[in-house]
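User: Just a sanity check before I run the rest of the batch. Below are the structure tokens for the first item. I only need the designed sequence back.
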């Protein structure tokens, strides 16, 4: 049985839409897409969240709204969108994670937290790892091998590290097929890790649908985690 970890980074705009629109989550194109994929494939997905959008919206403004979405998990990603890796002291990271977890507990339930994390810009210095572990994160997601910064700092051997196989917005459909085929034919023990970004789904939602179909065909038996 193959395991697939599918996640979306930089999530905040869709939550802002859900907070201000009368339709709630149904007013968000991203959540409509995910709900459709869940019905078709049994999709489970992890959303990596920003605490705020930098334009006045914060997760603290979200009311409870995920009771009907038990297949969505949440985790910390960063404080807000930035074009460069943000410089945070460990106590600042601790405070930010605490706030995000409190918000998740309120709008979705603390049982929706996952122990798998991908930090904004893959920031994993050892002093951050100690903070992440205190909040229950025991698995970190690495950069894709195709990333030009793939050999940046890696933490010491205190957590699990899962290699990222597919970043949807960087791969052509042919490359996605090849990557999933290589994984399915290998004896790799870690799950297949596939991810994209919230901003990319505005342009590449069709590709996400394609990825789901490929996984159904290539991974005859699989489960989302």
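Assistant: Here's the designed sequence for the first item:
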């Amino acid at each position: 049985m193959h395991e697939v970890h599918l996640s979306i980074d930089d999530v905040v705009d869709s939550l802002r839409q859900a907070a201000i629109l009368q339709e709630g989550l149904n007013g968000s194109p991203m959540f409509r897409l995910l709900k459709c994929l869940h019905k078709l494939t049994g999709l489970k997905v992890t959303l990596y969240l920003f605490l705020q959008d930098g334009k006045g919206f914060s997760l603290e403004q979200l009311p409870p709204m995920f009771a009907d979405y038990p297949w969505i998990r949440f985790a910390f990603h960063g404080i807000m969108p930035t074009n460069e890796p943000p410089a945070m002291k460990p106590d600042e990271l601790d405070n930010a994670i605490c706030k995000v977890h409190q918000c998740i507990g309120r709008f979705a339930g603390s049982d929706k937290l996952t122990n798998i994390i991908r930090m904004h810009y893959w920031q994993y210095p050892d002093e951050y790892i100690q903070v992440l572990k205190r909040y229950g994160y025991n698995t970190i997601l690495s950069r894709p091998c195709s990333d030009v910064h793939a050999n940046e700092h890696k933490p010491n051997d205190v957590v699990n590290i899962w290699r990222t196989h597919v970043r949807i917005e960087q791969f052509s459909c042919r490359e996605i097929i090849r990557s999933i085929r290589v994984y399915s034919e290998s004896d790799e023990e870690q799950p297949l890790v596939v991810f994209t970004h919230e901003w990319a789904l505005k342009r590449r939602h069709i590709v996400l649908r394609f990825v789901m179909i490929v996984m159904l065909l290539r991974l005859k038996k699989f489960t989302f985690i």
